Every structure is written in structure tokens, then in C-alpha cells.
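C-alpha cells incoming
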């Protein structure tokens, strides 16, 4: 039985896209699969693949939040659409860059660590709320009394926070002799110390 992605590759001229998902790997792991990421970073990655012929896929991780969104994305084999409206036009784009997704409360944190330590992964990106960084709002430094940070310091191999997950993945990558990861996050006007 054909997958949705294979059927789409066969009919890609109908969707005004020039690249095939065949052979696409997750070179980017993104934490926080929300509307901002879907409407911006995933679209830009999709456009870059189309223009350059690259096959950089994004694997999505949600540490908290909506399990149904992740389930729907996986059921659609990573495909979703973005609609842009203006006073003069309505444009839709089928975004094809997502290779899969995990909801860590369902899949377990170990699955997320394993994904971040795959050798082809080059970038970890985040679009999480300021609360997700577990910083002290006044000092803008890591809040060592935050429950997630306290847990991660006591049990670093089983992190619960986004930062703990990244630190553990980097530790394992270093131990295995894998390349470093480039870190990319949503820019804020207020400085956040990481």
C-alpha cells in the first residue's frame, strides 16, 4: 500500500512543489511544535528544501501540551498546510519537511534523547514559552529552585525540562564522539540566559 508521502511525490506537480521527500532525514529536532513553528520555521525549511534541493527534515518533540496534535501529525505522515491571507490573496502551502513527531509524556523521554543523539542531527531548535526555560524572571538566570530543574540536577539521565533534555543529549553526543549541535531558538526582546 502506498503511503501518503509516496502518492504525493508521484503527484507533486499538482502541489507546485519541486522536491521529493524520498531520502529525507531529520537533520533538525525541534522542541515545541506549536502554531508559531508550523507557520514560520517549518515553512522556511520547506522553502529552502524546494529552492536548494536539500533534504533537511524536521523531527518534532513536544515535552508537554497537546498529544492530539502530535498524533494527527503522525497520522498525516508529517504533512500539514499553512494558509496565508492578505487583502489581495489567499495562498496555501503544503509543508512537507516534517519527518515525524513525539509527545514525550506518551513516548517517554528516552525516545527524545535517542532522537537528539542520532548522528545526522545537526540543529536543535526551540519555540517554547519563557516559563519553559525555567529562569528566574527578575535575574533572568536559571532558577535552581524550579521543580523541573531540581529534578534534572538530581537525575540528569532522565530530564524533564527542555534544557535538561538538551544537556543530556549533548553529554551523550560528546561521549559517543558525535558532532556538536547548533542551537536555535525564537528571539525575544528580553535577554534570556541559557
Amino acid at each position: 500500500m502506498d503511503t501518503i508521502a509516496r502518492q504525493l511525490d508521484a503527484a507533486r506537480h499538482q502541489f507546485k512543489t519541486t522536491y521529493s521527500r524520498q531520502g529525507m532525514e531529520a537533520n533538525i529536532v525541534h522542541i515545541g511544535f506549536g502554531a508559531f513553528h508550523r507557520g514560520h520555521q517549518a515553512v522556511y525549511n520547506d522553502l529552502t528544501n524546494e529552492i536548494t534541493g536539500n533534504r533537511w527534515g524536521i523531527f518534532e518533540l513536544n515535552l508537554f501540551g497537546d498529544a492530539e496534535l502530535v498524533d494527527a501529525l503522525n497520522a498525516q505522515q508529517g504533512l500539514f498546510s499553512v494558509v496565508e491571507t492578505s487583502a489581495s490573496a489567499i495562498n496555501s502551502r503544503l509543508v512537507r519537511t516534517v519527518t515525524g513527531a513525539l509527545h514525550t509524556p506518551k513516548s517517554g523521554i528516552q525516545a527524545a534523547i535517542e532522537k537528539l543523539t542520532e548522528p545526522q542531527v545537526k540543529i536543535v531548535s526551540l519555540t517554547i514559552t519563557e516559563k519553559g526555560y525555567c529562569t528566574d524572571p527578575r535575574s533572568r538566570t536559571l532558577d535552581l529552585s524550579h521543580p523541573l530543574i531540581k529534578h534534572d540536577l538530581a537525575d540528569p539521565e532522565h530530564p524533564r525540562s527542555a534544557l535538561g533534555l538538551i544537556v543530556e543529549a549533548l553529554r551523550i553526543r560528546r561521549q559517543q564522539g558525535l558532532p556538536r549541535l547548533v542551537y536555535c531558538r525564537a528571539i525575544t526582546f528580553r535577554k534570556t540566559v541559557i
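note: Strands lie at 25-31, 56-62, 80-85, 90-95, 98-103, 123-126, 182-185.
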